[in-house]
């Protein structure tokens, strides 16, 4: 597998465009379109929040139908959540605008929105935006990058990646883009993400691979404990790589799944490190656990604790906060088996050893925790499973950003 330049336009047959539709923002692009002329099999995962945005329900119907997908239209600024019938009408109007412009069925057009909850989308601006973008679709790397920037809200950087790998003697490409900075908490994939690939694969296997990979990538990040109403991950595969269609879980399926895992984990970590107001990527790796479920629970509890996040921000080696978060996680373990370390590019330091706190060099601990990526490493000594979760520190700026988000 090789990392290459680009994102959603890296795979054969995918084009993208973006525009300033002035949906909410007045000084930046705020709509993106990703399109494949060739029909795609599609897979998706969505928020587990009971309050689901209109676009989530629209996309769930498309994925469940088994019909081909040709396009996805994304807007930033307004989430189209808690918007009643008018919200569903906006989804349909957007999809039908694509049908008119690009001559594909509107039922093959997914839509996604991100931004303020409870505001109605200006349908006239959405339709006009689709008209503009349909005329500027481009398969260039730059067009994909521009699309990744258009879907940002409070994100400080765009997030994209692409890889190539061999399947059945053919060169296959998988690319993706995502957005997410706040309202990020493990429970599906708390953000928007769009993956494109030219692999040929049966829809059921594509869905199984996506659902499986999400568990240890997007489901293992948290910024603020809030599961969004709009969480959507869509993966489109148009088959243009020319490989023999993957119809079983053999070597080719595992190769694809490995690439998919790499791309999703990369994008997930980019979102965690770009958490609202964040200055550090906060990683928790828990090893030698009795079960995979407990490993996931423990690692997510560590990075999700506000006290732990504040300690990471303050570079305070207060290991009791991390142990406390493990203790209330719901996983059963014996604290007398636990070893806890702080790690970063600046070094490694054990601070707790099988039930007993260790004397340690505070200056060394401070040096380790001053790095821009800090890991809490925990050895449970109770089994063979492990899991890693990602989050960020909790800073003053998180409150500032969210105090005036709507205005």
Automatic annotation (TrEMBL):
Q: What is its EC number?
A: 2.3.1.35, 2.3.1.1
In the record, what terms sit under GO molecular function?
L-glutamate N-acetyltransferase activity; L-glutamate N-acetyltransferase activity, acting on acetyl-L-ornithine as donor
CDD domains (UniProt xref): OAT
Any single Pfam family the record assigns to this protein: ArgJ
An example of a Gene Ontology cellular component annotation for this protein is:
cytoplasm
List localization entries.
Cytoplasm
Q: Which pathway is this protein assigned to?
A: Amino-acid biosynthesis; L-arginine biosynthesis; L-ornithine and N-acetyl-L-glutamate from L-glutamate and N(2)-acetyl-L-ornithine (cyclic): step 1/1; Amino-acid biosynthesis; L-arginine biosynthesis; N(2)-acetyl-L-ornithine from L-glutamate: step 1/4
The positions annotated as site (Involved in the stabilization of negative charge on the oxyanion by the formation of the oxyanion hole) read 114-115
Which GO biological process categories is it annotated with? Answer: L-arginine biosynthetic process; ornithine biosynthetic process
Q: Which reaction does it catalyse?
A: L-glutamate + acetyl-CoA = N-acetyl-L-glutamate + CoA + H(+); N(2)-acetyl-L-ornithine + L-glutamate = N-acetyl-L-glutamate + L-ornithine
Alphabetic keyword roster: Acyltransferase, Amino-acid biosynthesis, Arginine biosynthesis, Autocatalytic cleavage, Cytoplasm, Multifunctional enzyme, Transferase
What's this protein's family per the entry? Answer: Belongs to the ArgJ family.
The protein's job, in short, is: Catalyzes two activities which are involved in the cyclic version of arginine biosynthesis: the synthesis of N-acetylglutamate from glutamate and acetyl-CoA as the acetyl donor, and of ornithine by transacetylation between N(2)-acetylornithine and glutamate.
Listed under subunit, the entry gives: Heterotetramer of two alpha and two beta chains.
* Name of the protein described by the UniProt record: Arginine biosynthesis bifunctional protein ArgJ
Q: Which organism is it from?
A: Butyrivibrio hungatei
